[in-house]
Design brief:
Elements: E1 2-10, H1 15-30, E2 35-43, E3 55-56, H2 57-65, H3 69-85, E4 97-98, H4 102-113, H5 117-129, H6 138-147, H7 152-160, H8 162-177, E5 185-188, E6 192-195, H9 200-217
Parallel strand pairs: 1-2
Antiparallel strand pairs: 1-5, 3-4, 5-6
Helix pairs in contact: 1-9, 4-5, 4-8, 6-7
Length: 218
Amino acid sequence: MRSLRIDIVSDVVCPWCIIGYKRLQAALKLVSNEIQAEIHWHPFELNPTMPEGGENLRDHLARKYGTTKEASIEARNTLTQLGAEVGFQFNFYEEMRIYNTRKAHQLLMWANQHHKQNELELALFEAYFRHEKKIDDENVLIQIAVDAGLNEAECLEVLHDDSWAKAVANTEQQWLQAGIHAVPAIIIDQKHLVSGAQSTERLVELLKSISSNMASIH
């Protein structure tokens, strides 16, 4: 059994990030007799300057990328179908908003110390894409974190402690300097970069190849 470190740079308002993770999860299940993965999540803010309260998602995509309403509808249908294929339910709706995620990333970085990062990450994806939650709202974030098994008072401290916000910003800057400008970005064994939501089949190939190369080195 080989142990592999897998780092995932992502944002919790990125639909391709959860699709990419679910495909990775399926790939790891297929190679579970030979590979054991240790997953670490890292922050990336798609909208670092987004004000509190967010912006209508469709308006945001039109302003940022020039996306038409027709293209937006088509993209949502595609994502919903791809989500269903990997067991994740997207619940897109007309008034859906996109939010700044700095505070969510502060909690995620802290949750790693309590071995609750993966649970919190997945709960945040669910909260945003499935349950229509305002994930820049402190009360919403604290409730999600508490449900994931974290301490309420400590969550509040982390959200109000500027050093955690700076830690997130510094980490994001390091990934940008390393050439990560889009997410999801999956780094296997700290040296193999997988960009975008690759297919489960492709991920199985990569995992097996990297594992066998590690075996030959050792």
